[in-house]
Specification:
Blueprint (H helix, E strand, L loop, with lengths): L15 E9 L6 H10 L4 E6 L3 E6 L11 H6 L2 H17 L11 E7 L4 H12 L12 H5 L3 H10 L5 E5 L4 H14 L5 E8 L5 H9 L25 E2 L1 E9 H6 L6 E10 L9 H14 L9 E3 L6 H15 L6 E3 L2 H4 L6 H9 L2 H4 L1 E2 L23 E2 L5 E8 L3 E8 L2
Parallel strand pairs: 3-7, 4-5, 4-6, 10-11, 10-14
Antiparallel strand pairs: 1-8, 1-9, 2-3, 6-8, 9-15, 12-13, 14-15
């Protein structure tokens, strides 16, 4: 029996499509640059020095920060706000929306974050150290910088959006979670346009580097571009990265009414929880999350053409995800798996949204970008169809599945379809 794609049977005002993408990543500040880097095998990881930790490696974003934001607002705000404002503004610009005439009260902002506020608090403590920790020198901007809704709020302030704005704290599953929230709010008619995805300023906090280092999970390599190496036998941890990727999401009925260019349709999603460990993944629960997303969309595993893996480059994390993938996709001979963190490192709250974006052009060019830096494939990670080191052209690409998992056992899956 052939499964029926349930989303195609919904009325147009319950179907949600992507009409714009704005991003900044360590190897490109728009989708075209990002995609080109992925197809050419270009890494964005570089040497990096962070207070107290010293010399390490990171994925660092470069873009025109003052294109959409004044220097004054940047000083008052946060790096998460800056990358978010860039991505949101680029997404709107690329969506073809008549932005000046959009009802801003009907725009919702849903931003996935892994953590927020650490950077600002660390900086303030470091600054008052010079004054013998006299808190009268503490910045009065600290509270608005560190509230959890800050990245979404900075976007709202910058763009004059008066609809709902908030962040979704979902660890490293947050990019997917932001997208899922946008879909749900559109279907509930809480907004008419959703700016959704994820952001991360993680490389600016020494605490995240120190913590991964103490866990033995911080990657190292004499060549920075080879440090992030999921699935390889020599993988030795995570490369921390910053970034942002936000989408304009609309109901299909609205997108059709304005003759929008539709990039893809979001056809299914799922979120569940391991409830077994603070950091160690549970492949059984990950497999359940994958199956939930397939079932919700009325899809059989063999309908999926590309799976974007979460794999971070840690020994246990990569192999455990592969167990889940084998359980769900056994016998799917035409399926291809790839990984984006091998190019840019782990962009935390932005990871899932960026990784999905990097694969979306495959709907048009039918190319699955590779996983780079796999010199010796770990047998425990030997997925049939894993694309290694060189891109592969596929006969067709109709469905892409995006995995994104996080600490405290949160798992998320988003499935998109060629429109």
């Amino acid at each position: 029996m052939i499964a029926v794609d349930r989303t195609s049977q919904l009325p147009d005002d319950q179907r949600v499509v992507i009409t714009g993408i704005g991003l900044t990543s360590p190897n490109g500040y728009n989708l075209e640059m990002f995609r080109e880097s992925l197809l050419e095998g270009k890494s964005g990881v570089r040497n990096y020095n962070i207070r107290y930790v010293g010399d390490t490696l990171a994925g660092v974003c470069e873009f025109e920060t003052t294109k959409y934001q004044s220097k004054r607002d940047m000083r008052r705000g946060t790096r998460a706000g800056t990358v978010g404002i860039w991505a949101a503004s680029e997404a709107i610009q690329r969506s073809g929306l008549d932005w000046p005439n959009v009802d801003k009260s009907r725009v919702g902002i849903y931003i996935g974050v892994t953590e927020h506020g650490n950077v600002e608090t660390e900086n303030e403590i470091y600054s008052i150290k010079a004054y013998d920790y006299d808190t009268t020198y503490w910045s009065h901007h600290h509270n608005p910088r560190t509230v959890a809704n800050n990245p979404a709020g900075e976007i709202a302030l910058n763009m004059g959006i008066t609809g709902p704005h908030y962040t979704i704290g979902a660890a490293c599953a947050a990019g997917n979670a932001g997208i899922i929230q946008g879909v749900q709010m559109l279907r509930l008619r809480e907004c008419d346009l959703a700016i959704a995805g994820g952001v991360s300023e993680s490389i600016h906090t020494f605490g995240i580097f120190a913590s991964f280092k103490s866990q033995g999970a911080l990657a190292s390599h004499e060549d920075p571009t080879k440090a992030s190496r999921p699935f390889d036998t020599a993988r030795n941890g995570i490369v921390v990265a910053e970034g942002a990727c936000l989408y304009t999401l609309e109901r299909l009925s609205d997108a059709k009414a304005r003759s929008a260019n539709i990039i893809a349709e979001i056809v299914s999603y799922a979120i569940n929880t391991d409830a077994t460990d603070f950091v160690l993944p549970n492949p059984e629960r990950q497999a359940q999350c994958l199956q939930m997303a397939l079932d919700r969309g009325g899809l059989t595993p063999d309908r999926i053409n590309i799976v974007s893996t979460h794999a971070t480059g840690t020994s246990s994390g990569d192999s455990q995800e592969c167990i889940a993938l084998r359980n769900v996709f056994q016998g799917c001979d035409t399926l291809r798996f790839n990984n984006t963190k091998s190019f840019i490192g782990h962009a935390m709250g932005a990871a899932g949204a960026l990784e999905l974006a990097g694969n979306l052009p495959a709907f048009q060019d039918r190319v699955c970008h590779a996983t780079i830096n796999v010199d010796n494939l770990d047998p425990e990670c030997a997925l049939p169809g894993l694309v290694i080191n060189q891109p592969q052209e596929l006969p067709r690409v109709d469905y892409i599945l995006n995995n994104s998992f996080g600490m405290l056992g949160i798992n998320s899956v988003v499935i998109v379809r060629r429109f």
